[in-house]
């Protein structure tokens, strides 16, 4: 049973790689085949393992599960990353737009195939019951979650800059105005918060387990995995230190959101988790 599951995950990672080939052709990308076939598969394996854990423990099925996988993968693994790359002048507007559409194509095709592959298309969704939370409580928690992201973001950046001076030579002519950099993190933080809420309300796991998975999704899909393949836009040493930086800060942030936004869950037998 487990062997069959792992084979499906490997197949899913190859599907993503194949979709990147197709999207490269459709959007005239210059990404090399060697990069996508070797490092891309490694990156994609990490992604599908985490998405597989989510799908296997979600209360959703069918189209709702497909949409959930789509939003988690595209927002965390593509959109939020590309916004950051754009404001730091790593990619220009044309390249960012092209990457956005490539990611949209890849994730749109992959999400339903992944749900079908893991045999989670059919089935009756399980209703999860949570203790009610007031609108005001949601508002301040979401606002605080956005602010906390800025704190983690700035702290991680300052620590990295202090310990790796070569970073500034790479970003010497790329740094945006401070106000642009800071203001951009609030909508990015909001997207992280919304994905965290989605996962918290659809996972049949204990809060600590939800926190671990959200943290791993944020750190791996939203940082480490995309930085594994060689890139014409970022040298290896910069990708490596950014992977460590984002991997740690996003993981801690995901854990923090699980406790900030999580609700007590009661199943049909009123057993608390």
What does it look like?
By secondary structure, this protein is mainly α. Helix content is 75%, strand content 1%. The longest helix has 29 residues. The two termini are 27 Å apart.
Supply database-style keywords:
single chain, 273 residues, mainly alpha, two-stranded antiparallel ribbon, 75% helix, globular, disordered C terminus
Strand order of the largest sheet: 1-2
Strand content: under 5%
Largest sheet: 2 strands, antiparallel
Overall residue-averaged pLDDT value:
87
Overall geometry: globular
Specify Rg, calculated over alpha carbons: 19 Å
Report the total helices.
Answer: 9
Could you give the count of β-strands? 2
Could you list the spans in which at least 5 consecutive residues all have pLDDT below 50? 268-273
Q: How far apart are the first and last residues' alpha carbons, in Å?
A: 27 Å
Order of helices and strands: HHHHEHHHHHE
- Fraction of residues in H or I helices: over 70%
Please identify the structural class as seen in this structure.
mainly alpha
Quick gist of this model?
The protein is an all-alpha fold and 273 residues long.
Architecture blueprint of SSEs:
Blueprint: H1 2-26, H2 33-56, H3 62-87, H4 93-117, E1 129-130, H5 135-163, H6 166-170, H7 178-200, H8 207-227, H9 236-261, E2 265-266
Antiparallel strand pairs: 1-2
């Amino acid at each position: 049973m487990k062997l069959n599951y792992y084979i499906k995950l490997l197949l899913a990672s190859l599907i993503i790689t194949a979709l990147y080939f197709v999207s490269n052709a459709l959007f005239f990308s210059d990404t090399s085949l060697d990069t996508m076939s070797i490092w891309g598969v490694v990156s994609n394996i990490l992604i599908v393992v985490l998405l597989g854990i989510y799908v296997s423990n979600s209360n959703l099925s069918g189209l709702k599960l497909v949409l959930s996988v789509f939003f988690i993968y595209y927002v965390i693994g593509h959109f939020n990353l590309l916004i950051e790359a754009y404001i730091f002048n790593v990619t220009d507007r044309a390249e960012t737009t092209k990457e956005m559409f490539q990611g949209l194509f890849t994730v749109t095709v992959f999400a339903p195939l992944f749900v079908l592959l893991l045999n989670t298309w059919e089935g009756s969704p399980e209703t999860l019951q949570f203790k009610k939370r007031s609108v005001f409580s949601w508002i301040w928690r979401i606002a605080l979650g956005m602010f906390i992201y800025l704190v983690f973001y700035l702290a991680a950046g300052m620590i990295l800059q202090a310990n790796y001076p070569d970073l500034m030579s790479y970003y010497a002519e790329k740094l945006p105005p401070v106000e642009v950099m800071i203001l951009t993190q609030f909508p990015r933080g909001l997207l992280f918060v919304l994905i965290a809420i989605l996962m918290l309300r659809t996972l049949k796991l204990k809060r600590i387990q939800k926190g671990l998975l959200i943290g791993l999704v944020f750190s791996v899909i939203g940082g480490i995995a995309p930085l594994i393949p060689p890139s014409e836009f970022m040298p290896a040493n910069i990708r490596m230190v950014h992977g460590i930086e984002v991997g740690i800060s996003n993981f801690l942030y995901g854990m923090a959101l699980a406790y900030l936004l999580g609700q007590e869950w009661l199943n049909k037998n009123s057993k608390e988790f």
